[in-house]
Specification:
seven-stranded antiparallel β-sheet, Rossmann fold, binds iron/sulfur cluster, globular, alpha+beta, 18 helices
Length: 471
């Protein structure tokens, strides 16, 4: 599974705003490794400064950027993996535009589910898009509400966000104003905190821990928090639409030391492992995870079942995203390069492997084969989430249904395909018993019940309607 999507960080009223944002992004690197960006409001020169680049936070920013160029005491930062829009520098965020006296930078985590229609509407009205990102739609809507309807920035942001649908946690820097906002379903996390005299926002609280900032509360679904020279205020820009927090943040994406949606990720993962042990015990010699994804659920499984936990799949911590492969031969070294089992531990043993999810099944198949090759007697697998059968329209990069192994095959067929003796997925009930406020979560990738109907494209009828609209 591609694990990256996006991470946000924002800070108001800090003399080292750029540096704090750099650290806040560093702590959230796991949320996006494709590009990184920081913008600051330079009050002296009255303009927004920016630095963006492809790659990791440590590669994109240097001492000079942080000390000399990114001046200002308000900053917004973003790490990105593209869920919509190609992997290009012009798609790196925060996305910055000028509009009259206003300079506006926007950082987005999530995915708009009605972007195709809105984009067609805006293009029909003469808008020229610079990027392929759905985030740019929000910017153009804001500009239109300001120019056509004469709205002030706060009202224009609110009006624009009432038109877009899907998942959006946003940080917006509008000259010297910082706006944080969450969609009415609250799909993605956004935490609000305080650090001395400064206010901070982050996708995950692990960023606050690094900065020793105090977590105050999450930004609520449908809420807009504005901080400017007049102080801090909060508004409801639209009615919340129930709560549909992405349960995959707890299963896989967020860092285990973060609290998201009011709960600690580590503890949720452990509870999922314990629920798995109750649902489907197995008589094995020991429990082991495929690191790092299965680590925390395997601790829960081992504690609940009383089986020993062994960490005998060894991870190479120095593997980058790519390495130079030999030009001759068909062998794929990438799986072996990342993980290697301890032969003397697996030989002749009955092993219970705990994984957090199976998407395509291809990587797992290779890892299981390796255990077999080293002489494992039996291999059982327990997965700490239900089968993923449907795509995600809210910012997680699952492949199409035709590539989702659980959408195409039964559990028994999957067990045969990946070469294991038994397979069990955590039930939806078991998953919900492992989290607090179980009614507040999106489960659409398991049950196909989408909390916000996805618009999959612009059909002919819709296009005719758009063409009939007054630009
Ligand atoms: S469909 Fe799945 S991955 Fe997407 S938001 Fe819902 S729970 Fe998260």
């Amino acid at each position: 599974m591609k694990r990256e999507f996006c991470g946000l960080f924002g800070i108001y009223n800090n003399p080292e705003a750029a540096h704090m944002t750099y650290l806040g992004l560093y702590a959230q690197q796991h949320r996006g490794q494709e590009s990184a960006g920081i913008v600051t409001w330079d009050a002296g020169k009255q303009f927004i400064r920016e630095q963006k680049g492809m790659g990791l936070v440590a590669d994109v920013f240097n001492e000079r950027h942080l000390q000399k160029e990114l001046k200002g005491d308000i900053a917004v930062g973003h790490v990105r993996y593209s869920t919509t829009g190609a992997s290009l520098i012009r798609n790196a965020q925060p996305f910055l535009v000028s509009f009259g006296d206003l300079q506006l930078a926007i950082a987005h985590n999530g995915n708009l589910s009605n972007s195709a229609v809105l984009r067609a509407e805006l293009e029909h009205a003469g808008t020229i898009f610079q990027t392929t990102m759905d985030t740019e739609i929000i910017v153009h809507l804001i500009a239109r509400h300001m120019s056509k309807d004469g709205m002030e920035i706060e009202d224009a942001v609110a009006a624009a966000c009432r038109r877009v649908e899907g998942a959006f946690s946003l940080l917006i820097l509008a000259n010297d104003k910082l706006i944080a906002l969450k969609d009415p379903n609250g799909f993605r996390p956004l935490a609000f905190g305080r650090m001395g005299e400064s206010y901070v926002f982050a996708s995950e609280t692990c960023a606050f821990d690094l900065l020793e900032a105090e977590f105050l509360r999450p930004v609520e679904p449908g809420e807009m928090v504005i901080i400017d020279r007049e102080g801090l205020r909060s508004k409801r820009y639209c009615e919340p639409n129930g709560r549909s927090h992405c349960i995959f943040e707890l299963i896989y994406f967020a860092r285990p030391d973060s609290d998201v949606f009011g709960q600690n990720v580590y503890q949720c993962r452990k509870a999922m492992g314990a629920a798995l042990a109750r649902e489907c015990p197995v008589d094995a010699d020991f429990v082991m995870p495929f690191p790092d994804s299965g680590n925390y659920a395997s601790v829960g499984y081992a504690q609940e079942s009383g089986l020993p936990l062994e960490l005998c799949m060894i991870r190479n911590h120095y593997v980058g995203r790519t390495f130079i492969k030999p030009s001759q031969g068909e062998r794929d070294f990438s799986t072996n390069m990342k993980l290697n089992p301890v032969r003397s531990m697996v030989e002749g043993k009955s092993i219970l492997v705990v994984e957090d999810s199976i998407v395509r099944g291809t990587t797992i198949r290779t890892r299981i084969k390796k255990l077999r090759d080293l002489g494992a007697r039996e291999i059982h697998m327990r997965v700490s989430c239900p089968p993923i059968k449907y795509g995600c329209y809210y910012g997680i990069d699952f492949p199409t249904r035709s590539q989702l192994i659980a959408a195409q095959h039964s559990v028994d067929e999957i067990a045969k395909m990946i070469g294991i003796d038994s397979l069990h997925y955590l039930s939806i009930e078991g998953l919900l018993s492992s989290v607090q406020n179980p009614g507040d979560f999106c489960l659409a990738c398991f049950d196909g019940k989408y909390p916000v109907a996805p618009c999959l494209g612009v059909d002919k009828e819709c296009l005719e309607q758009i063409k009939g609209m007054k630009p």
